[in-house]
Amino acid sequence: MNDQKYWDCTVTKGIMPLLKKTGKITSKNTYTIREFEFLKEYADGTYKDFCSEGVHMSYIDAKLKKDIHIEGKKTFNSLILSFLINGELLIQLDKNSSKIICENQESCMAYLTEADGYCTYNKCKQLKELKIRLSPEFLKKHLLLDENEDLKDVLGIATIQEKGSIPFSIKTEEIITEILSAKFTDNSKRLFIESKILELLAIQINENITTHKELISNDMVTKKIYEVERIIGADLTALYSIQQLTKLVSLNEFVLKKEFKRIFKKTIFDYTLSLKMKKAMKLLIHTNKPIYEISDSVGYKNPTHFTAAFKKLNDCTPKKYRTNDKTVLPIL
Question: What is the DSSP annotation of 236-259?
Fold first, then answer.
């Protein structure tokens, strides 16, 4: 059975009846890309998927006209990752398991051998979901699954029930954006997408296995801490005080500062500073923007203050860093 037929019969059958029968199909030597519009009675929008050896990736971008309920039985092994960019998703992996709720900017992952359940996408202004399915062969190829390891024990239904959904990190958001905006063609597109999938997988496995349970639990405090991280990273020109952040996420100051440092190993100030300096370093190396513009883009109205902060962390001025970017190693 070839890859496209394998994925058709195992994972896409549930949503295909909601789509128009004809769509745009692009086939290359090593991958296939399909794009379909939703039937007007269900949604206004598109369903796209990418299929290569051992990899199936789908993306829904649609305005739902009603709740969409999809039932299905799956009997083939695969690792499934769901990234809900926008919307609300209810998942029940089998008849005996409890329901898992994913909301905006949350993800979940499970290794399934058999599943007889359903998922429900609640009607919303705009549903955006990236879903990735990886075969055991792909996992073995990249040394993520060996003969003595059974992923269903560490990432099976019981695990996803216990841990629930996980808020996106800034890095997760960046990788998803890179995948969705990829402009590569031919084999370079497959290599790029698969490399980004492996990055996402590394982040998800780390958060699901090696992190303390309280960090990844479906806890409102944890979600609010990740929300603070997103707020900070979304606009590095903004100067948020602790008091402003506490109001934005409805946490008291003590809990916010304590939990933020526990999760990110830095104070809010130090974490924000590291994000500013990382962005500044990228702009210094990859653009010709003058230093005063870079200073402004990371929230410093006074270039002198920016230069002092940069030098304190990197032992060199921004100008020297740009000139010697191949030899100067940042400490961040």
Answer: TT----HHHHHHHHT--HHHHHHH
